Amino acid sequence: MPSSCFRGDTNSTVELTVLRLRNPDPQKMTLTRAIVAFPAIVAKMMPDDVGYLHVTSLGGNRVDDIKGKLADLKKQGAKYVVLDLRHCSTGDQEKGIPLANLFLDKGQITYLEGQKVEKKTFDASAGGDVWSGPLVVITNRSTAGGAEIAAAAFAR
């Protein structure tokens, strides 16, 4: 079911019918919509001039927050950055492009191509990068969406 089915005004409801393998009888559920607050971005200095950023969501204005935290780490003397994207699977896929652009100043970030969609390439824009030093990216099986797009762009 598309996530857009769940969008709506806060405190409004949506009714779902759930089918389970163990229980063949359909079960109706009513969910109440609410604003979900994601954990804050963790940014801290570690030993040996290593800056650490843990991002768990790209929802909202998170890329702007990451940019600010990255600039702060730079001011604190970070010579290396660890970008931890483990369990980062929420937020629009499109957010992976500006996230990657914080670390890349040239080259292809990603592209979109389909049977009914002409190929569209997304390149890093010069001057958009905030960090140009050594970077380590940590992902896991729960890294998805925009975070996965950014991580793939770093691997090129």
Topology diagram in text:
Elements: E1 13-18, E2 27-32, E3 42-46, E4 50-54, H1 62-75, E5 80-84, H2 96-101, E6 108-112, E7 120-123, E8 135-138, H3 146-154
Parallel strand pairs: 4-5, 5-8
Antiparallel strand pairs: 1-2, 3-4, 6-7
Quick structural gist:
Helices cover 19% and strands 26% of the residues.
Walkthrough of the structure:
- The chain has 156 residues and is an alpha/beta fold.
- 19% of the residues lie in helices and 26% in strands.
- It is built from three helices and eight strands; from the N terminus they run ββββαβαβββα.
- It has a four-stranded mixed sheet with strand order 3-4-5-8, covered by helices on one side. A two-stranded antiparallel ribbon has the order 1-2. The chain has a two-stranded antiparallel sheet with strand order 6-7.
- A hairpin with a 3-residue loop joins strand 3 and strand 4.
- The mean pLDDT is 90.
